[in-house]
Amino acid sequence: MNADKDKNAKPPAGIPSQARRVFSGVIYDVWQWEQEMYDGTTATFEKISRPDTVEIIGTVGDKIILEEQTQPDRDLCLSLPSGRADQSEDMLAEAKREFLEETGYESDDWLHWKSIYPTGKVIHPWHFYIARDCRLTSVPSLDSGEKITVKLITMDELLTLADEPRFWVGAQFISDLLRLRADERKKEEFRRLIFGGK
Amino acid sequence: MNADKDKNAKPPAGIPSQARRVFSGVIYDVWQWEQEMYDGTTATFEKISRPDTVEIIGTVGDKIILEEQTQPDRDLCLSLPSGRADQSEDMLAEAKREFLEETGYESDDWLHWKSIYPTGKVIHPWHFYIARDCRLTSVPSLDSGEKITVKLITMDELLTLADEPRFWVGAQFISDLLRLRADERKKEEFRRLIFGGK
């Protein structure tokens, strides 16, 4: 929140190494650098960065864990278990932590599905994990900014959520769901991936 | 760029009216407010905003205008004619300006296709316009941060771009293309929309 702090902070991947952090907020950092243009002049370029997000596709039997969630400044939305990875560099550990806190479920069968590194002006990496054969081991420990109810849905219901405006997930995941809907073979591959071949 | 300027600036739609602008950059503004939590405590919440983007689907005969573009800090990408709407409040006027500057084309048959207002922490509205029956009237006037080549592609080629990682467009438009690919009726409706019933 202090524009003068950490002027020597190192920019994340996706932002030129010579960029300077000109603002550091609660979530977002703002970075600027002098960019040489095609005509030899320079201009101040700007990008922003924020902590990575982890998203978890957790399965219980033949169902998928979905959250119904409200936050203090937002109406009801649906989401995968997910959160801001701001407590360690270990994204799998962050995924396990958020998943347990929000749902009370654990798994012994985690895999990294994919990571998305947006290439635009907002540096916000997403990491998707799959947690198979989850079991409920505790009561969710929600913080004061969360109200979450866990539901179990089928894979067909998940694919239908691509048309649900209240489904709160990165836009690329909506495209993933649409691609699965359009290709029966890919859909079956994905079903085996998240349910472990069952 | 001065953290102290315009503390009384009014936040855009999507950010609570009591939010204060704590940073104003070249593109991005950062807004913060004290949010009451579910347990009665408060926490500092943060969102960012930036100027709207206009995107243009321009057609020439039975073809669609596509740009091949490089920028000083980016490799080759493909895009629709588009730009930052930072010169007026009139989005159609901004679309016409960007379209003419980048492509040299004009149209007498513009329509607003849709606007997207992201509901997350990054307030960045997108406005899509359709420009039918375009005609080349001038040489593009590119600024020192643009190298653009205009190409004409078919609608099927546009739909294929949903699989092209270098296609530089809002992720929601990729979902739009996937939905058109999955529904022959919607695809024909869209074809009539952008080509004017031909």
Question: How is this structure best described in words?
Answer:
The structure is a homodimer of 198-residue chains. Chain A has 198 residues and is α+β, with helices and mostly antiparallel strands. Chain A has two domains: 1-49, no CATH class; 53-195, Nucleoside Triphosphate Pyrophosphohydrolase. Helices cover 21% and strands 38% of the residues of chain A. Chain A has helices spanning 91-103, 155-160, 171-181, 184-195, and strands at 20-24, 29-36, 42-49, 53-60, 63-71, 74-79, 82-84, 105-106, 109-116, 122-123, 126-132, 135-136, 147-153. In chain A, strands 4, 5, 6, 7, 9, 11 and 13 form a seven-stranded mixed sheet that branches. In chain A, strands 1-2-3-10 form a four-stranded mixed sheet, with no helix packed on it. In chain A, strands 8-12 form a two-stranded antiparallel sheet. In chain A, a hairpin with a 4-residue loop joins β1 (20-24) and β2. Chain A is globular. The mean pLDDT of chain A is 93. Chains A and B meet through β2, β3 and α3 of A and β2, β3 and α3 of B.
